[in-house]
Design brief:
By secondary structure, the protein is mainly α. Helix content is 66%, strand content 3%. The protein has five helices and two strands; from the N terminus they run ααβαβαα.
Length: 143
C-alpha cells in the first residue's frame, strides 16, 4: 500500500477529523477567554485594588538600566523583568478554560447511557416457588 493511500485513510478517520475540529474550536475558545479575562474580568478587579493594571505588573531585574513605569518600557529597553501580572492573567485564563472543559465533560458523562449491568445469576427460588415446581413436576409425571 502506498504511503499516500495510507495517509489518506489515516486522515479521513473520524477521530482525526474530530480532533482537528476540536483543536480549531479550542483555539477560538481560548481567544475568547483571554479577551474576557484581559478586557472584562481584570479591569474591575484592578479598579477595586486601587487602579492596578495587572498586565503591567513586573519586577525589574536590571536596576542599572533604570526605573521603568511600564512593562513595555522595560522590555523596549532590554531590561530583564519578571512579568508576574501577565502570569496572573494566564493563570486566570487557564482556570476558566479548565472549569469550562470540566463542565462540558461532566455534562457529556451525564448524557451517556449507563452500561447494561452484567447479567448476574438468577436468585435462588423461594420455598414457595420450590413447592410449586414440585407440584408442577408431579402433575407432569401423572399425565
Amino acid at each position: 500500500m502506498s504511503m499516500i493511500k495510507e495517509f489518506k485513510e489515516f486522515a479521513m478517520k473520524g477521530n482525526v477529523v474530530d480532533l482537528a475540529v476540536a483543536v480549531i474550536i479550542g483555539g477560538a475558545f481560548g481567544k475568547i477567554v483571554t479577551s474576557a479575562v484581559n478586557d472584562v474580568i481584570m479591569p474591575p478587579i484592578g479598579k477595586l485594588m486601587g487602579g492596578v493594571n495587572f498586565s503591567d505588573l513586573f519586577i525589574n531585574l536590571d536596576a542599572a538600566k533604570g526605573p521603568f513605569t511600564s512593562l513595555k518600557a522595560a522590555k523596549d529597553a532590554g531590561a530583564a523583568v519578571i512579568a508576574y501580572g501577565s502570569f496572573i492573567n494566564t493563570v486566570i485564563d487557564f482556570t476558566i478554560v479548565a472549569f469550562c472543559i470540566f463542565v462540558i465533560i461532566k455534562l457529556m458523562n451525564s448524557m451517556k447511557k449507563p452500561a447494561p449491568a452484567a447479567s448476574a445469576a438468577p436468585p435462588e427460588p423461594t420455598k414457595d416457588q420450590k413447592l410449586l415446581m414440585e407440584i408442577r413436576d408431579a402433575l407432569k409425571a401423572r399425565a
